[in-house]
């Protein structure tokens, strides 16, 4: 993933993005419930990777989780820190996690892998598994489709994934799926899917 390209693309629309998506009220109740079920009671640190404006990091903290947000975009991190005082946010890339092996209890990657080219997807899942403790949880969201493919996302080229293939790739990376959530497309929204998985 060209991190500089992603950073610049989101920085150019950061104000609008925050307005449209920057609070937990913009998140579907079923999605919040899924995140809460699998990450809301983790006893150790949880990373919100690609945290954007920080609303889901803040939500996890409301649930009592030791959550930390990481994002590439300075504008998002500045907003997150201002909106969620007392919550830890860092500017950085999920591709270069400065985290020891088996040290993190949970990871939220909520649509933060959508710009990752398919050849890099497995490597990212393996990096997630590297830092998670055994039985740690991963929750990720993707654009759902019958086949892997690129599409013109409003910010930058993104990729759709068949949810069954995501589950298979998770298995090869050292995870086991424990729950999935799918939402069909509408006139306004593309089909979506989320998977919760446990590190094995």
Automatic annotation (TrEMBL):
Origin superkingdom: Bacteria
Respond yes or no to whether keyword Mitochondrion is given for this record: no
What CDD domains does UniProt report for this protein, alphabetically?
AdoMet_MTases
- Can you supply a Gene Ontology BP term from the record? methylation
Q: Which GO terms describe its molecular function?
A: methyltransferase activity
The UniProt entry, under Pfam families, shows: Methyltransf_25 (PF13649)
Question: Record keywords: Methyltransferase included?
Answer: yes
Q: Which InterPro entries match?
A: Methyltransf_25 (IPR041698), SAM-dependent_MTases_sf (IPR029063)
Q: Which UniProt keywords apply?
A: Methyltransferase, Transferase
Ranges for domain Methyltransferase: 46-136
Q: Which PANTHER family does the annotation name?
A: TRANS-ACONITATE 2-METHYLTRANSFERASE, TRANS-ACONITATE 2-METHYLTRANSFERASE-RELATED
Protein name as it appears in the record:
Methyltransferase domain-containing protein
According to its UniProt entry, this protein's organism is: Micromonospora saelicesensis
Q: What is the lineage of its organism?
A: Bacteria, Bacillati, Actinomycetota, Actinomycetes, Micromonosporales
